[in-house]
Design goal:
elongated; alpha+beta; Outer membrane efflux proteins (OEP); porin activity; 443 residues; two-stranded antiparallel sheet; efflux transmembrane transporter activity; membrane; transmembrane
Length: 443
């Protein structure tokens, strides 16, 4: 029985390899259980308590919800919505109040020329101005913001995929440690029980003391392997919690990851390719923005209020004015052509990256598919090897009590069995990692 954090977890070796059954009575966190039914009920309750926080989905959802990068992208999209409203507001009538007041005295003939200064000027005006812009011009500006928002959203989705892949890879690694730790614990428990039997047989001269010492060396090696596996699991589990932003010092067992294999979409439907589409639309939009910047600009303005030099009937100097201004670009040193050239270069770069992605995407698909097939075929062969190794160990254990098998042969059989199980665990982990890579590119 092994303790993880504040929970106790009982390990059991496969029944086919047992010689001595465990007693039904056992102590767990200070309580004594008299019936196996009660033990099963308590185990069920403990599993339910941790069922919500030891799955792959739990850690992925925690990592996504705690990610400041995803929150940053969401806030950027919200900011673009505000920018859109600001553009609308900038083309509404702009109202400003202004007041200019000055006095230029002439003392004994000394002072500014009244013909220029009028001696004084007092104004208090309310001005209104409005830029005249076409609906197509507005739509072009809004389209630029919309494409920027799409680019940020797509980048956010790619970041989500990165987080999913990273957390899933760490979860798979940690679960592999957990499986390794569980298996080593089971073997260690088995060897401890067999130690009791072999010690009695050695005392009865059925086995030599040297044979028994050989077995003890194997038992001690398994104990060291158990401690090493325990350290590795705690380290990788802490890394998993760190990646997810979880402040948890306890350690629990993980559930087997459920990873269905998703199909690869066509390259042009992938979120990784979508950015190239958005960049192409941005280049088109940039040309339209340049075109509108070289069209005539019209601005209507007016003001009203009080404006007087105080020289003649100042009480009548209340009034209003209205006007219109127009700007027509004529020549700017061919800057428009230069701006088009920059967009053309950006488009050539985009096409180069897009073509390279399409080529790599297909290569990645073929490579991962081949790796998955090879790994699954190898797992089948390893499972067959485990059946033979398990049968050999079982046969050696049955002959152990009668002294008809050498301890060295039993140790060799156990080592072969453990090697095959370890190889199976490694390839199962490799298979999940390959599926994780496939699912990363499948969105």
């Amino acid at each position: 029985m092994q303790k993880w954090g504040n929970k106790h977890i009982a390990f059991s070796f496969p029944k086919s390899l047992r010689i001595v059954d465990l007693p039904l009575n056992g102590k767990l966190t200070g309580y004594t259980f008299k019936t196996p039914i009660f033990c099963l009920l308590l185990l069920f309750l403990v599993q339910n308590l941790s069922a919500q926080n030891n799955t792959l989905d739990f850690y992925v959802s925690k990592a996504l919800s705690n990610s400041p990068l995803i929150k940053d992208y969401n806030n950027q999209i919200r900011t673009i919505g505000i920018d859109s409203e600001m553009i609308r507001a900038s083309y509404k009538p702009q109202v400003n109040g202004t007041s200019n007041n000055y006095y230029a005295p002439v003392i004994k003939g000394w002072g500014y020329d009244n013909a220029i200064t009028n001696g004084a000027n007092i104004s208090a005006l309310v001005g209104v101005s409005k830029a005249i812009v076409s609906q197509k011009n507005l739509q072009t500006q809004f389209e630029a913001l919309r494409l920027t928002a799409q680019g940020i959203k797509n980048t956010s989705q790619i970041s989500e995929q990165d987080i999913r892949r990273t957390v899933t890879a760490q979860y798979i690694l940690t679960y592999g440690d957990w499986q390794q730790l569980t298996f080593i614990q089971e073997v260690y428990d088995l060897l401890q029980k067999e130690d009791i039997i072999l010690k009695k047989l050695a005392q009865g001269n059925i086995y030599k003391q040297t044979d028994y010492l050989t077995f003890l060396v194997t038992l001690q090696q398994q104990k060291l392997a158990l401690k090493q596996a325990d350290i590795q699991y705690h380290s990788d589990y802490a890394t998993l919690a760190y990646l997810c932003g979880i402040n948890d010092t306890s350690t629990i067992g993980l559930q087997e990851p459920i990873l269905p294999v998703y199909q690869f979409p066509e390259a042009e439907n992938s979120i990784f390719f979508k950015q190239y589409v958005i960049d192409s639309l941005k280049n088109i939009n940039s040309r339209q923005v340049i075109d509108f910047s070289y069209r005539p600009k019209v601005n209507v303005f007016g003001d009203g209020g009080y404006n007087s030099s105080l020289a003649y009937t100042p009480y009548k100097n209340f009034g209003a004015s209205i006007g219109i201004s127009m700007t027509l670009p004529i020549y700017d040193g061919k800057q428009r052509k230069m701006k088009y050239s920059k967009i053309d270069i950006a488009e050539q770069t985009r096409k180069s990256y897009s073509s390279f992605f399409n080529h790599q995407y297909k290569q990645q698909l073929d490579l991962l598919s081949a790796q998955l097939t090879s790994t699954e075929d190898l797992i089948i062969e390893i499972n067959n090897q485990i059946k033979y190794s398990e049968g050999l160990v079982r046969a050696h254990l049955q002959l152990l009590t009668t002294g008809e098998v050498r301890i060295a042969d039993l140790v060799i059989a156990l080592n072969n069995y453990m090697t095959a199980k370890n190889l199976l665990a490694q390839n199962r982990t490799n298979r999940w990692q390959i599926i994780n890579q496939i699912n990363y590119w499948s969105r």
